[in-house]
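Our consortium's second objective concerns turning raw sequence data into structural hypotheses that experimental partners can test. To show how far this objective has progressed, the report includes one record in full. It was chosen at random from the queue rather than selected for favorable results. The single chain below, 287 residues long, was entered without modification.
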Amino acid sequence: MTSVLFDVPGPKARRRHRVIGGLTVVALVVLFGLAIWKLYTEDLFTAQNWEPFVTPVYINVLLEGLMWTVISAALAIAGAVVLGVILGVAKLSDHRIVRWPAWLFVEFFRAVPLLLLIIFIWALAGYPLYTIWPLVAGLVLYNGSVLAEIFRAGINAVPSGQVEAGYALGLRKTAVTRIIQLPQAIRIMIPSLISQCIVALKDTSLGYVITASGLTVAGREIWRTFGNYLATALVLAVIYIILNLLLSWFGNWVEGRINRSPKVAGNDAGRTAMDLENRRLDSGTAL
């Protein structure tokens, strides 16, 4: 018996798969046991290492760091999305004076290592302490350049027939991009947008290098006091994992709402000439 994607395993293959699966489980259990033993030998499970995380003063320090991390991520994501839309559309412009500067901007900031970019902006600002703006600026420039390519690819993925229908009605390129391409491209790009937003959230941890207010800087204050480097790192990792899961859940929820939207669902079948004409009249776009 065969499947479209693979051959259904026979009796020998199933036995082999069970053996491989069992050995994998045993290996994972052994590795987990070794990790626990290593943590035990490093005195990770002593009460002194975990005391800060049940002490109100240090809990407030972590909560304040969490607040600044969320603020930094929100500002960076919002700025990167706006910059990405502008650059992505500019790279598709018919005018070289618009297209080539956008191309150079995107390629340059995609190639520069993010940490070096953040340190450079921090140096230009005069090495300020406990401020998030150099971090946010670096994240916006880098992630905005990456999102520009995502937006450009999403716009190009819209069926050409719909674009040609818009031109046939006399719509200009800006109107075609705004009314026809961008709304559908956003739906195509949502998984990539979510992934890049998660990357931006995780990259806020780089603020540790420039002492930008956030979770990693708050964690540094704790482990400098108690010397519990590993315990603090585990706590910060759990917090970041929870934040990323929440952001993923929110992105999936938004994607589900968009997919269930009647207006977006209508795009799957393609707009007719009458639909485009009504849309043009409603938006007041000139022929």
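The partners drew two points from this record. Residues 90 and 98 are 6 Å apart (CA to CA). Confidence is low (pLDDT under 50) at residues 264-274. Both points have been shared with the crystallography group to help prioritize constructs.
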